[in-house]
Design brief:
Layout: H1 4-22, H2 30-36, E1 39-43, H3 48-64, E2 70-74, H4 82-98, E3 105-110, E4 135-140, H5 141-150, H6 157-168, H7 170-179
Parallel strand pairs: 1-2
Antiparallel strand pairs: 2-4, 3-4
Helix pairs in contact: 3-4
Pfam families: DUF1415
Protein name: DUF1415 domain-containing protein
Organism: Flaviaesturariibacter amylovorans
């Protein structure tokens, strides 16, 4: 049986995927996986070692289950400060490389306080990578390649997302994002 808090964390994350990622079309490939129910969620402990061990377990889980397209590793306790999270992300990418998973998986990063290099914290564009909790997304490299090959203009997705967020404005993006953490 799933811990009630974990169920709530996952529910908030699913709402974020539906309302923000799919709703704003930040990832044009996400809706298909939502409909297929091929997204999995794991909760990792608050220490770097615990998160990295959970990441290794996520690689193993994906290796053993081709039905899982992507996995979100939520880190709700710890790494609330964005600079600390970036250090965790560096360590996670190193674990991916040293574990022999480079070319098999890649990581996407999301954090409640995400700020793109060179942007202001109040830039609405940051909401393209802001999630309810610090998290790492494990993507199958083969699937990413297939999607990029099949979808014209993938290199323009980040620019389009930034333009969308800025057009909608800070207040809109904040309201949408905050709605993901409201009680369901």
């Amino acid at each position: 049986m799933q811990h009630p808090r974990h169920a709530q964390l996952i529910a908030h994350t699913k709402k974020w995927i539906t309302d923000v990622v799919v709703g704003c079309n930040f990832c044009p490939f996400a809706l298909r996986e939502v409909k297929r129910d091929s997204i999995r969620f794991e909760i990792a402990g608050g220490t770097r070692a615990a998160v990295l061990d959970a990441l290794t377990a996520a690689f193993t889980r994906l290796d053993g289950d081709a039905e899982i397209e992507t996995l979100f590793l939520l880190v709700p306790d710890g790494f609330t400060r964005f600079p600390e999270y970036l250090k965790l992300l560096d360590a996670a990418n190193l674990r991916l490389q040293k574990g022999g998973y480079e070319g098999t998986y890649q990581l996407a990063s999301f954090h409640p306080g995400y700020v793109f290099a060179g942007s202001r914290p109040d830039d609405p564009a940051n909401y393209t990578n802001r999630a309810p909790y610090p998290m790492l997304q494990v993507l199958r490299e083969e699937s990413v390649t297939r999607a990029v090959d099949a979808y014209p203009g993938t290199e323009k997705i980040p620019e389009r997302n930034i333009a969308f967020a800025r057009e909608k404005g800070l207040e809109y993006m904040q309201r949408l994002w905050m709605g993901c953490r409201e009680s369901l």
